[in-house]
Structures are given as structure tokens and as C-alpha cells.
Input
Amino acid sequence: MEIEKQPSNKLNLFGLLLGLLVSSLNQTITVTAMTTTVQELGGISLFGWTLSIYMLMSTASIPIYGKLADLYGRKSTYLLGMVLFLLGSSLCGMAGNMTHLIVFRGIQGLGASSMLPVALAIVGDLFPPERRDKPQSMLVSVFGLASILGPALGGFLTELVSWHWLFFVNLPFGVSAVCLLAIGHRENRIKHKLIIDWPGAITLCGSVIAILLA
Output
């Protein structure tokens, strides 16, 4: 019961919620406003890939993050995913053509895939079993909030500012989430024998991508 009473738990939970909101909003914002982006960058034939590559990379890499979280800790794995997501967001906002945008969206998806599973694992570490239902439900409810706010925010940014801000808007909130978790979360590191089946991981990712493409 002691871990649940730590004053930093609320700070950690807020950081997790903020990070998950940013990553989920990114999907609903871009879906409604990507047409304008494609028109400015050209390459309408590649339009589908701007959305598909994000889903492909995020789906294929989820099992890898689970293994990394066991080896290196939940906090480090979550922060790694968040940094990759923010890097991808920055690059997407500066993309000069469709090819670059697709590649950078892949980096975004690669980072975003760590958010929900690792966040749920962190909640499991912070709270005892009888107290986990509320914070876990809060994490999942973020997706409902994103589905409401995303389309309106995407249209607002595209019409009144620029499509670049579809991605740049992630940065201040994402950096805040990283700082909150980096400062507030303290986890007990358990040393594991470093065993990563890289050929298996690559095969798994390739198989998942092939199935999703089919």
C-alpha cells in the first residue's frame, strides 16, 4: 500500500495521461486535415501511406516495446517511445515532400506504439491491484476524448494556422509529459540477462506488416 500513497503518483499519472492524449490526438487530427497537407506537398497517389505507415509501424513494434520494458524498465522504454514520437512530429512538420512525410510518420508510429501498453504497465507498478481500475480507465478514456477534440482541432489548425501545426502542436505537450514522468517516476530497476532475439523481432515485425498490408 505504500507505493499508492506516494505524492508523486498523481504527477506520474498526469504525465502518462498527457502523453497518451498527445499520441491519440495525433491520429484524429491528421485524419481530418491530411487532405490539405497532401494537396500542398503533392503526391496524391501516396495519400494512403501517410495514414497506413503510422498504423503499420505502431502495430508491429508493440511486442518489441514489451520486451524492452522488461529489460530496461518501464520508465526508460516509455520515454524512448515519447522521444521518438516527438522527433517524428518535428520532422513531419518540416517535411518538404510526400516521401519525407511518410518516412517521418513511420517514426511517429514507432514511438507512439509504446504509449498505451507501457503506460498501463507503469500504472500497475504505481498502484496496488485494488486501486488500478480508476487510473487504467482514465488512460483508456483518453481515446474517446481524442476522437471528439481531434477533428475540430485539426480543422482549426489547418484553416487558421498551417498544416505544419498538425504536428508541431504535439511538441509542448509531449515535452511536458516527458518532464513530468522523468522527474516524478522512480522505479526499482531489476537487472535481467540481456537476451533479445533480433532475428525473431525482425521476422515478427515483417510478418505483422505483411498481414496488415494484405
Residues 33 and 155 are 6 Å apart (CA to CA). The radius of gyration is 18 Å. Confidence is low (pLDDT under 50) at residues 1-5. The first helix runs from residue 8 to 41.
